[in-house]
Design brief:
The chain contains 16 helices and no strands. Helix 3 runs antiparallel to helix 6, helix 5 packs antiparallel against helix 6 and helix 8 runs antiparallel to helix 16. It is mainly α.
């Protein structure tokens, strides 16, 4: 499973037909997703002028993942991941079209937005683990898997750069309704890419265990194996305490930097630029070795950048520091994904990626709600600063854990040909 030196570098995973189709379709769809995200946040803040409701919207969109992701993981391991993805994309398109219809008719309210956020959250609870697990099926050569995961992150954050900027322009020129409509149409691209893939029929294996038994089996693995447990705990902390800065971004744009939708677009774009740079860095790496140390550096950078962002009142400094926040979180999240996909047994992949989804997205609603409550009391800047310090503390904790985690992962890397048995233990950084 070592990389071939003659193989193309950053885009080598695109050699695989199914992955290339998926990458193309998702690139278009995710652009629409980010346009809708900025439109939703701006619409809620325009209607209510409340940081608390911004947090509540984030909570409603993500709490279904907290409740449903572990069960969704069991279904991902039992069913065709390809078929599940087709259905989740169709339902997501319908949800965006409902938002557009309400906005065009002038009947949209915060109540409707909260309800439709819950609907999208339910869809995402099944879509995210299925999408993460399906990446392995699209990549015939497992040596290209880390590159595929990094390219996924590049795709997500590339759309994060362009989407908010385009969304800000559309909001200012035409209103939020057109943002929702464009998002609904953009789903056609990923649906088409999924339908034209050549996918091997999934062999349905008769199981003598119940859903709850398989869920317990997955939980025992995740909680009992220290490397998996540790990277997921760190990701959960960073997601819950750090990522709410994006939920509070409309408040920062409006009250701190005295701007409008364009300002919000610039701030989100600055963060996205850093995220793309981080993703390209990971895509250029040819091995999973050393990712543990990368996670430590990324987490510390993310936390420190949030502290500076919360302290500044100068737009130029915010635009300078946000790329470090975007890069730090993206690298931490994608590196965790790569490690989990590398060391996890195939029979448990869906469940492990469901717990990854739970750590990444499922903890965010609690963080968003908490951030909204705290920001209502002390303001958005102070809330972001607290989250930044929490992330720094998490990075320090993981750094102390890293040497013992390396020793546990080392036998797996040797067994799978990633690390030669004669290599020094220092090179086995997970």
């Amino acid at each position: 499973m070592t990389n071939n030196p003659g193989r193309p570098g950053i885009g080598r995973a695109l050699r695989h037909r199914n992955y290339k189709l998926f990458f193309s379709g998702q690139s278009v769809s995710l652009m629409g997703t980010w346009i809708t995200r900025i439109a939703t946040s701006w619409l809620v803040y325009r209607l209510t002028n409340s940081a608390l409701l911004l947090g509540l919207v984030g909570f409603c969109g993500q709490i279904p993942t907290t409740l449903l992701a572990p069960f969704a993981g069991v279904l991902v391991d039992r069913m065709s991941r390809h078929r599940m993805l087709v259905w989740t994309q169709v339902l997501s398109a319908a949800q965006s079209m409902a938002l557009a219809g309400l906005a065009f008719s002038g009947t949209i309210t915060v109540g409707w937005i909260l309800f439709l956020q819950v609907v999208q959250g339910i869809i995402n609870a099944f879509d995210t683990p299925a999408r993460q697990a399906f990446v392995v099926e699209m990549i015939e050569d497992r040596a290209d898997l880390p590159n595929a995961i990094a390219l996924n992150s590049t795709m997500v954050n590339g759309s994060r750069i362009i989407g908010p900027s385009v969304g800000g322009i559309i909001i200012a020129a035409f209103g939020e309704a057109w943002c929702f409509a464009i998002d609904a149409i953009s789903y056609l691209a990923v649906i088409a890419s999924l339908l034209v893939m050549r996918v091997r029929p999934t062999e349905q294996v008769a199981r003598g265990t119940s859903v709850l038994e398989e869920l317990r089996d997955g939980y025992r693995y995740v909680s009992g194996f220290a490397p998996v447990r540790s990277v997921l705990l760190l990701l959960a902390l960073v997601s819950a305490m750090g990522m709410p800065y994006t939920v509070l971004m409309p408040a920062m744009a409006s009250t701190v930097f005295r701007g409008g939708p364009h300002t919000l677009g610039f701030l989100m774009t600055a963060s996205g630029v850093g995220a793309v740079a981080g993703a390209l860095f990971l895509a250029s790496r040819r091995t999973v070795l050393g990712l543990g140390r990368v996670i430590v550096i990324a987490t510390l950078s993310f936390g420190a950048a949030l502290v500076v962002f919360g302290l500044t009142r100068a737009m130029w400094l915010a635009l300078l520091v946000l790329p470090f926040a975007g890069a730090g979180f993206m690298v931490e999240m994608a590196s965790t994904n790569t490690i989990l996909q590398t060391i996890t047994e195939e029979r448990l992949r869906g469940r492990v990626m469901a717990f990854y989804t739970l750590a990444f997205l499922g903890t965010a609603p609690l963080g968003s709600l908490l951030a909204g409550v705290v920001a209502d009391r002390i303001g958005a800047p102070g809330t972001i600063i607290i989250g930044g310090f929490a992330c720094v503390a998490g990075g320090v904790w993981f750094a102390f854990r890293l040497p013992s985690l390396r020793q546990l992962v080392r036998p797996i890397y040797i067994e799978r040909g990633i690390l030669a048995a004669a290599s020094s233990s220092n090179s086995a950084a997970d």
